[in-house]
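Long-time lurker. I teach an intro course on protein structure, and each term I like to show students one example going from raw sequence to a predicted 3D structure in token notation. This year I'd like something fresh instead of my usual example. Would anyone be willing to generate the tokens for the chain below so I can use it in lecture? Attribution to the forum is fine with me.
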Amino acid sequence: MTSSTRWLVGLLLALVVGLGVALAIVAGDDDDGTPAITATAQATTAEPTTTETTTAQPTTTETTTTESSGGVAPPSEGSGLGQ
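-- Reply from a regular --
Happy to contribute to a lecture. Here you go:
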């Protein structure tokens, strides 16, 4: 047997032994489904909040039309570009 073959067999044997030990540890665990660390929760109560709602009164606006004085007169017919 060559030295590289011996190393390969040694590594595979170590791997098998390691997996066997890991399997023994997992199988030996007597876990009953409860966590090892238990957390306690404290219940807190909050004060009930109240919100006040108000309704806005509808607003009315008055529009008045006034004749404006000044400004530019609209163009008369026939005075456009290209005429």
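Some talking points for your students: The chain has a mean pLDDT of 78. The radius of gyration is 46 Å.
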